[in-house]
Structures
1.
Amino acid sequence: MNLDKDFWNNRYAGNQIGWDLGAPSTPLKEFVDTLEDKSIRILIPGCGNAYEAEYLHQQGFENVFVIDIAPLALEGFKKRVPEFPADHLILGDFFEHEAEYDLILEQTFFCALDPKLRSDYAKKMHDLLAPNGKLAGVMFCFELTEQGPPFGGSATEYEGYFGELFEIKSMQPCLNSIKPRLGNELWVELLKN
Ligand SMILES: C[S@@+](CC[C@H](N)C(=O)[O-])C[C@H]1O[C@@H](n2cnc3c(N)ncnc32)[C@H](O)[C@@H]1O
């Protein structure tokens, strides 16, 4: 399966977006509520309908950027949240994006990628973060099979990709997952080395 731009755009075109929560996920929302500095540069990659970006914007965070490879995802977001700065919506491939952020939020993006890209994901996250920058969010912890997306994995596997590049502050079972995902998610906080 080719998980390219057309694959994802067609999912939005056909409204086959089973991952979409219609609201910011509880773990991300509660994490955002702990952030004090509203000027930090935040990226949400593979943002989809980007409810977390909408929430950040409502809370007064000024430097929130989203990137997605599917034009329809960003078009939908733009229509739903017209007040979000248009120049903070980036249409493109995460792996080709170049900028610097203090915080990157992960929410069903890692699991949507071909598992072969996992080390590249870890390296790209490291490159995109400023010194002391943080990658935070949720990652699935269920068996990795050929079937996906979403593709599963385990903390042990993930430590292999991130361990040398990041200080692993948290990679623990997520206690405030939404009900259908409870027991299947890790809460992850990785500090750039
Ligand atoms: C499973 S969806 C999750 C969307 C959103 N994070 C959510 O939780 O609702 C994965 C998203 O990643 C996007 N995506 C996949 N590969 C990408 C890439 N290389 N660069 C940027 N976005 C990508 C897809 O278009 C899709 O919107």
2.
Amino acid sequence: MKNALEYIESLRSLKPIIYCNGQKIESVVEHPMTRPHVNSAAMTYAMAFGPDAELATATSHLTGKKVNRFTHIHQGTNDLVNKVKLLRKISQKTGTCFQRCVGMDALNATFIVTHKIDQECGTEYHNRFIEYMKYVQENDLMIAGSMTDVKGDRSLKPGEQDDPDMYVHIVSKNEEGIIVRGAKAHQTGMANSHEMLILPTTNLGPEDKDYAVAAAIPVDAPGVVHIFGRQTNDQRRLQGDIDTGNAKFAIVGGETLTILNDVFVPWNKVFMCGEHQYAQEYVEKFAAYHRQNYGGCKVGLSDVIIGASQAMAEYNGVPKANHIKDKIIEMINLAETMYCCSIACSAEGKPTEAGSYYVDTLLANTVKLNCTKNMYEISRLAHDIAGGLIATLPYEIDYKSPVTGPYIEKYLKGKADVPTQDRIRMARLVENMTGGTALAESMHGAGSPQAMRIMLYREANLKEKVKFAKNLAGIKPQVAQEQAAATKEDK
Ligand SMILES: Cc1cc2nc3c(=O)[nH]c(=O)nc-3n(C[C@H](O)[C@H](O)[C@H](O)COP(=O)(O)OP(=O)(O)OC[C@H]3O[C@@H](n4cnc5c(N)ncnc54)[C@H](O)[C@@H]3O)c2cc1C
């Protein structure tokens, strides 16, 4: 396993092409826009050597060696539960996305789907993928999970788009491998990953089989271009350490728009090539694993937001006010509800035919749907408690100026025994964690809410619920009628 420093050093040998704000980023380790994201991801490596090492590591079922949990294929419900607990702990330390879970979920989904494709199509993807997994574990790689295509007109399937490159597709194949073209959007942690694992973003018909592609690609492979995303207030990190609110770790995952300009992938890194009928299952497996995470990482973030809100109440001298206590209690309730869902979908996980463990789909989707609302409500309550300061604080440079600084020091003081700067710093942290980019991630990361609603409707077994109700209402089963209805539905 790599420790945090070794991970950071390993990034220096990669040469990805990354554009940001009109310039090329020469080193993600040194550049002020990417370094905080490197620091966050580094925490996933540091944890494997810290007091929570037991949680942060696992034994590889492929090699018997100890590996970082982010490169592990889940072997039981305890692995699934430990994943959630680990994510919560890392979030408590970074206060932001540490990016590496997306790749872990893509790896676990690929493990299941390649097995199924091989069983039914006689292909050799699974063994190929196992070799790849060993390479990932051996080198403790950070993998970007690359599902989301840019998608163009959302009402059209890939092959119906005006521009065929709106979804990543296979352009050609030869004896050595395949060439892919297209772009992946919102790519968390891509700039500071070692490789990306691309997979389809939607269900596909036979006419779209060239879009059914899964493959691992180094982030600096020829033809790969990344354009770094702009985040709320990100330029503040160039101007000091107070105004960012979380100077060391920044906000969300440093997402990129990643363009694949006719990128060559050798066969040993291709895990799906045209098997369109498995695209939907691939997406669902990846999405369920990824939605499981939100009651871990977002609850860790909520822990920090709740702590910051409590601190602000103390700095303002009102921690004992009844409505403040009520609001803090409500925030705890909202956070722990998300945690319960994640623990539940993990504890209710089941073995797969590939031998790994998979979360309960219904419950995993419930986690994320809750998160799209609860994080907004938690943030709303944090804003209420923190006060208007989070919206009107002066610039850090004015706080540090000999002309204006003394005024700010005097007039922005809260409780007498609390330094003004502590109050300012805490307000900035609340602002950072509860605004723009951070909240949008809770909404759309791992899929927009409607994607979860569709899964809830599909997975909830409504027929069985109707039966329960009819039984209690004393309505006798009308066998003939129900059979006719079922036949009609099947058609
Ligand atoms: C911070 C962040 C990090 C992310 N990280 C990753 C990552 O690491 N890897 C990755 O692969 N993806 C990542 N994503 C992408 C995420 O999965 C997508 O944002 C999500 O699936 C929604 O897709 P979209 O953003 O293109 O939204 P859109 O598809 O534009 O959705 C906008 C709205 O339109 C609706 N809509 C879309 N299509 C249809 C349709 N056909 N019919 C009806 N309604 C429709 C949606 O429900 C939604 O309400 C990330 C996203 C964010 C915000």
